[in-house]
Amino acid sequence: MMMERHLNGIFSVGTPHPVDIVMINAPRGIKDRVPPEEDQFNALLTLTEEHLRKAGFKKVGLPIFESVALFTRSIGVETDIVEKEMYLFEDKGGERFALRPEGTASLLRAAIEHHLIEPARVTRLSYSGPMFRHERPQAGRLRQFHQAGAEILGAITPEDDVDLLAIIDGISRSLRLPGTTLFINNMGCSRCRPVFREALVSYLSLHQDNLCQTCRKRTGTNPLRVLDCKVPDCQPIIEKAPSILDFLCEDSRKHHEAVCAGLNSLNINYTINPRLVRGLDYYTETTFEFVSNALGSQSTWAAGGRYDGLLAQLGGPDSPGAGFAIGLERLALLAAQSGTMPSSSLFTQDASVLPLGPTAIPFAQNIVRELRTEGIAATGIFGTTKIKQGFKQAERDGSRFILIIGEDEIARGEIVVKDLSSGEQVMIPLFPPDHLSRHIRSAKL
RNA sequence: GUGAGUGUAGCUCAAGGGCAGAGCACUGGUCUGUGGCUCCAGGGGUUGGGGGUUCGAAACCCCUCACUCACCCCA
After folding, report:
1. Most buried pick, A47, A65, A204, A233, via CB within 10 A?
2. Nearest nt (C1') to A328 (CA)?
3. Alpha carbons A89 and A30: distance in angstroms, whole number
4. Over residues A30-38, mean pLDDT
5. How far is the CA of A92 from the C1' of B11 (A)?
6. Residue pLDDT, tens place only, A3-12
7. A179 - beta bridge partners?
8. Using the CB atom, is residue A296 less than 7 Å from strand B?
9. Residue A395 beta carbon within 7 A of nucleic strand B
10. Whole-number pLDDT of residue A14
11. Would you say residue A338 has pLDDT above 50?
């Protein structure tokens, strides 16, 4: 109804008042990154990717959308992500797609499709980019958010699990992130988990009356998820529930111990949380979360684990895999708090060229082009002839130097070069043309 | 999907039924070709939108929209 009103305003005969125009804003939960945020965000992404590159990961470029089936098959039909959070659409051929809600499924699909996995060896692949989930936005939670992730595929060992944790820990240390705790768990393998599951279901069945609605439903559909229910009334029951750690088979127990031993030897602090259950169904054995008390209630900034059956489920080799994803917006929040957000420097470009008067304009235009050709970031200031405004514009440009050219300078074949940070000013000859750029390059240091 | 809080100038916020304001930013001057500091002046608002109560509404009531936070979920 409101819409119609506005449209009437626009299309009605007569002169519509500007306020009748319907403002189009960014969709809910979608954030623009305006300067200097975008540069900072990219610097943080680069820093993260550099950690992955140094750890032997090769980056893969992945599509933004995939067949819906890829996610239902990997993440699990009973998960919130698949049940109610995916952005779905049909293309003109009637195929059903989803904007990717996470990266692991895509990366594994690509790795299988291009035969990147050699089951007897270890393959390390990484990715980064936007992910999409239709959730109610909140501090640290967006509908389009960004993850950097890494996956190890093939003949992997518990030590590879440890390495993943060490990499995230390294990022955490290099950014001096505040208040982070690493929680780990082992969810068992295809042999021991069903035994635990059965024990859990029969325990939960006995206490149905005291469980919340969701937990009662999940007892049948996805009993492990009951373990991280936060409803107060459920807590006493959950606390006394059987622990997965008591049900681990010999292999899983050894796996778990090896992971703990690795963390110990690397001096990485961790807390074992037997009720840590990830929201994606594909995890087996090791799962983990890096949680910070410096974020809001969305406190997990990196998480992952091992997934032994997923590659086979997606039509790949019957090999295990393990990986993690880092929430970059959450990482940015933390880095900002600790003052370690990699920031673009004070000066975002090198030079602003200010012509004083119309005869100087063509000189300025040519100087700008010459500087850019020489790799120096430069813009001209053509909107004003007043030197004071020129200086202000140069500051707004983020320029380190202002270059001033007027009648006098043209007559002498020179240009004024003033360093805006020190206030030092020199005259530089206009010929040869590369003289100016060489001066600026050396003066920058 | 549920709940709570908040919407006033470009930004951060005052005014809690009686003239819609401050700081920062912006424009001009102070200062004719040398910025940042002073001081002075100026522009900028249907107080998110719609309806109601009232002599009078930014304020009170209803509806609606948006944002924020929390539940939930997760990175």
Report:
1. A204
2. B75
3. 18
4. 90
5. 45
6. 322 322 222 2
7. none
8. yes
9. yes
10. 26
11. yes
Burial of A342 (0-12, 13-18, 19+ CB in 10 A): middle
Rounded mean pLDDT of chain A?
91
Distances (CA, A) of A253 to A21, A187, A256, A328, A338: 65, 10, 5, 33, 37
pLDDT at A10: 27
Nucleotide nearest to A416 (CA to C1'): B34
Spatial distance from the CA of A23 to the C1' of B46 (Å)? 16
> Is the CB of residue A169 inside 7 Å of nucleic acid strand B?
no
Distance from CA(A396) to C1'(B19), angstroms, rounded: 38
- Who among residues 300-329 of A has its Cβ near strand B, under 7 Å? 300-303, 325-327, 329
**Which tokens is A52 given?**
């992955």
Evaluated on CA atoms A384, A390, A394, A395, the torsion sign reads negative
Q: Round to a whole number and report the distance in Å from the CA of A260 to the C1' of B1.
A: 40
State how far the Cα of A374 lies from the Cα of A372, in Å rounded to an integer: 5
Q: Lowest mean pLDDT: which of A165-179, A292-306, A331-345?
A: A331-345
Q: Above 50 in pLDDT, residue A231?
A: yes
Q: Which nucleotide is nearest to A406 (CA to C1')?
A: B33
Contacts of A161 (CB under 8 A, 6+ apart): A255, A259, A262, A285, A286, A306, A322
- Could you tell me the distance in Å between the CA of residue A195 and the C1' of nucleotide B43? 75
Residue A389 contacts strand B, CB under 7 A? yes
The residue lying closest to nucleotide B32, measuring its CA against C1', is A386
Token representation of residue A98: 């989803």
Q: Is the CB of A17 under 7 A from strand B?
A: yes
Dihedral-angle region of residue A271 (phi above 0 means left; psi in -120 to 50 means alpha; beta otherwise): beta
**What gap in Å lies between CA A286 and CA A321, rounded to an integer?**
11
Whole-number percent of chain A with pLDDT over 70: 95
CA distance A118 to A431: 60
Query: Comparing A182-191, A338-347, A418-427, which segment has the lowest mean pLDDT?
Result: A338-347
Digit-coded pLDDT (tens) for A118-131: 999 999 999 999 99
Which nucleotides of strand B lie under 7 Å from a protein CB? 1-3, 26-29, 31-36, 46, 49, 64-75
**Statement: the CB of A299 is under 7 Å from strand B:** yes
Q: What is the CA radius of gyration of chain A?
A: 29
Count of Cβ atoms closer than 10 Å to residue A47 Cβ: 18
Q: Quote ipTM for the complex.
A: 0.90
Query: Cα A136 to chain center, whole Å?
Result: 18
